Amino acid sequence: MTASDAHAAVEAVWRIESARLIAALARVVREVGLAEDLAQEALVAALEQWPESGVPDNPGAWLMATAKHRGIDRMRHATMAERKHEELGRELEIDRGEVQPDIDAAIDDHIGDDLLSLIFATCHPVLPTEARVALTLRMLGGLATKDIARAFLVPESTLAQRIVRAKKALAEADLPFEVPGPDELAERLSSVLEVIYLVFNEGYSATAGDDWMRPELVQDALRLGRILAELVPDEPEVHGLVALMEIQASRLRARTGPGGEPILLLDQERARWDWVLVNRGLKALDRADALGGEPGPYALQGRSPPAMRVRAGRRTPTGRASPRCTPRWRASPARRSSS
Amino acid sequence: MRFMVLVKASEDSEAGVMPTEEQLAEMGKFNEEMVKAGVMLAGEGLHPSSKGARVKFSGSERTITDGPFTETKELIAGFWLIQVKSREEAIEWIKRCPNPGPGESEIEIRQVFEAEDFGEELTPELREQEQRIRAQAEDNESS
User: Fold this and answer.
1) Do residues B24 and B90 both lie within one domain?
2) Tens-digit pLDDT profile for residues A160-185
3) Which of A229, A242, A293, A335 is deepest in the core (most CB within 10 A)?
């Protein structure tokens, strides 16, 4: 395995595992910032060791065990609150030595709540909005600081600072690592939805000349939204947001012409809409509807006239727009060669 | 980026042998994991090729051949459509997939074309600019 192959493999594993890893660690150490530091140390260890050893059979468990060992080492060297020390020690000692095959199962038992607690922490109202966005993308999206900085057009050092300050603010606020109770759930959830939609819009507003990291934010937001929808499946507004994002994203490639000029919705080629996303969006709307209650702002936007036009389009995909529904496989190469 | 993940057919899948309860449960768990990670966009299992057909094209001629088709290993028994950040991430996910068959099986991972692959988002101005920069870079290198 070459160094760059190994590096790519570590990145891929990180993207899949990092949120779960940080969330599970945060439950143990009761501090999101420290949990992330430990996870990052495990990442560094993987980058050092995997090019030699290859990717382990269970990379998630490897990262978890490594992070926990780092945690113990830190405890030995740092003076920390006795309570935390004892708890961490007790939980960590279990995993000393061998990578245990049942770590995954143990994580799985809690992982839904842990991930949800992590999202609520990174989107906590004690943080300024831009800090919530940065922390969420880093801890739940698995994005590196430099990538977030590029996507938001700020210097990397600025963004790194923002993250350090946010982690510190969270530690100082000494918030419980938990899913908010019913009395504050609605308000806290709306902060989470706001952060995700902000990320989405940042990507959606990117133009053709932008760095590819910017439009990629659309995918990051969609992924976060889909994750959240599975974590809190009974919250209609989450499905409303997912519906809105899927439907908006379905029109991404139809909204500009070959010269980059904007194309109004009514003039868009419906064949160029992304029908996988259209259908996912409509299903999310159905889920929101099925849960009942008053539709919130996202679900309402998801039902806005443009979205309904998508819905109408589904019923009659060969309707009046059909003369311009040139199949992509025929349209694209021609467009390509004419340039 | 998007990948089409193709589960290759096996003698069993072509014979219409249904997965065991255990296989179904394992595959269900894997699907759930991909859904919870926000990665899986779609996925379906396919009936054996005996229920399918092929349409062959030759100029303006169309010839229909009914299944089953013999070259089992070239056939598809199911697919996923996944949205990930890299080819490596797609591979990493599929490594976690339970073996779809009882013995040897194969899953193929193919990247889906997207708008930017066709360069449509490059406006004429940007395209021209890019060509200019490239030409200049070549000049710089050769001088």
Assistant:
1) yes
2) 999 999 999 999 999 999 999 999 99
3) A242
- The single-letter code of the amino acid at A298 is Y
Q: Mutate which of A15, A224, A278, A336 to test chain B, going by most B C-beta atoms within 10 A?
A: A15
pLDDT per position as a tens digit, B90-137: 999 999 999 988 888 999 999 998 766 655 555 556 656 656 666 666
Q: How far apart are CA B15 and CA A274, in angstroms?
A: 35
Integer Rg of chain A from CA: 22
Q: The tokens of A5 are what?
A: 């192959």
Q: Bridge partners of B42?
A: B81
Domain ranges of chain A: 1-112
Same domain, yes or no: B142 and B106: no
Give the closest residue to A138 by CA, choosing from A5, A39, A210, A276. A39
Query: Residue B119 has what DSSP assignment?
Result: T
Residue B14 sits in a domain whose CATH number is 3.30.70.1060
Pairwise CA distance, residues A201 & A51, whole Å: 38
What total of structural domains would you count in chain B?
2
Give CA–CA dist A259/B108, Å, rounded: 36
Radius of gyration over every alpha carbon of chain B, rounded to an integer in angstroms? 21
Give A-chain residues touching B42 at CB under 8 angstroms.
276
What's the whole-model pTM score?
0.82
For residues B63 and B100, membership in a common domain is answered with: yes
CB contact under 8 A, A208 and B83: no
Under DSSP, the state recorded for A95 is: T
What's the distance, CA A125 to chain centroid? 18
Examine the domain organization and report whether B97 and B29 are in the same domain: yes
Could you tell me the residue range of the domain that residue B108 belongs to?
2-112
